[in-house]
Specification:
By secondary structure, the protein is α+β, with helices and mostly antiparallel strands. It is built from 7 helices and 4 strands.
Length: 178
Amino acid sequence: MNSKQTTLRKRSGLAADLDEKDLAILEVLQEDGRIPLSELGRRIGLSQPAMSERVKHLEERGIIQGYGARIDLAAVGLDMMAIIRLRTTHEHIRACLKQFEELPFVIEVHRITGDDCFILKALVPAAEYLAMIVDAIGRFGAVTTSVVLRSEPAKNIGGVLLMAAARPRRGASTTWAR
């Protein structure tokens, strides 16, 4: 078994081991990653040592991958966001990935199915930077660019989604979609 298969196998069992306290911890930490563990314990109903042990265990298992700051993009001069689609051929996939890595304004890369091969998310201070990105990747194939007018806040990964991942079923109830 190669390392990719091993990683996939390991990850598939992670969600199944989460209990309700773990799910509650994950939900609170997504809202406030700097919350003191004593306060987190009070909210969840665990002592500070028990909370510390649970958080440490979630970190060691790779479920919590890190903590970070949310940046106000406009405040730092990154006023324009664009979604860029690239249609290329299989022979250019590695070269594309290398090029994306070298473009500092490309902050997300998604390899996708369908007519296009990649969806990129770029943050730029002005349109001329977007033009440089399009010019840099255009040699790999057809580029379609959409400027984002407004973004809604990203949703946290909530308990319902985590529970669904822990217990996937065919034909599961869709009461959440009603």
